[in-house]
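Q: Got a minute? One more chain.
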Amino acid sequence: MNNRIFITIQIGIISFFMFADQNLMGPNLTLIAKDFDLVNVKDQYLGGYIPLFFWLVGGAVSIVIGFYTDLLPRKILFSLIVFIGEIPCLLSGYANTYMQFFILRVLTGIGIGGIIPITYSLLGDLYSSSERIKIVTLIGLCSGLGIASGQLCAGLIGDTYGWRLPFIIFSVPNFIFAIIFFISVKEPKRGKMDNNKNPDFKISNLKDLISLFKIKTNILVFLQGIFGTIPWGVFSIFMIDYFVIDKGYYKTTATLVITLIGGMALLSSIIGGFIGNKIYKKKPKYLPLFCGITTILGVIPTSLLINIPYQNEKNESLIIIYAILTGLFIAMTAPNMKAILMNVNNPYSRGTIFSIYNFFDDLGRGFGPFIIGNILIYYFGRNVAFNIANSFWFICGCLILMMFWTLPKESQG
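A: Always. Here it is, folded:
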């Protein structure tokens, strides 16, 4: 088998199980709260504090790992991070107190935060600029399938077998796959697909790090990441509970709705990656227009979904339609943003640049649920809070549109 295909398949499988852990709490928020006697403060303690520190720790680890990704053998770092991330995920299923659960969930963020810069550093040296959107879309598909599968599994078996089992199911396989990755992978040469452009450049001091922020497209990608991940972080944690407790829908229906959003988001990312690849080959500056407009359009069905009336037979159909439209529009951007980052940055700084990108994403994923869960829900209620969260996608879309003026000059930087 072709070496790069073999590496890509392994990264995809590991990403599936690693990201499956991301939304295992959401479908069983009330069950977990009952176990730890937190029913009246579940939004704050489970939906606010845990995501905040989960993503902050993940983001901080990502910065460190990103720096070493550009210096050290990547297959060793990748395998090590997978192990370190999956151990606390496994142990989360055995937590006896809230504090134990809190610490283990936070430490699990190491896995997701750590593998992202290594993944895209490796992919950048396996595929050319014209191939990267397609391969980023494929890895995003694997990660998204993992998130959707984990969430669906947790929702379907939580009431029968308890909320703990999914943490065990989705952590164990990666211990095996990490060992296989370490033993079998032959690491690609850095800069191979960029003709070893500027091989002497490495991020070795603060001045080198600051130079990355002189690339305007980088700044815009980072900022759109913050605003774009706030709604995702909020909805993945609160929405199933919101539809059940606040809107009166059955848990199976609510789980189906969120799974549909995830499933359509996967389809959306494939469509977005395919169209984005065509657009980039023809005229790179038009790619931000496509991504920005679709992101802004996604605000409309999401608003209809949030504000759907209390459960009745008619609304059962509407909620499904709104979920499909929401997922279809809001995920076309992701693979294209990662490919843009690869193409405007030096291959010898990609680990660092993707660690910074992941850090900004993690700020949105962490602070979004924290601010929504601990401040806005407290003062305004869930409905108003979630509508405010949805508005951040509009800001995200506007920031993407601004790349229309920066991408053509900085592409292939």
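A: The first helix runs from residue 3 to 20.
Q: Perfect, thanks.
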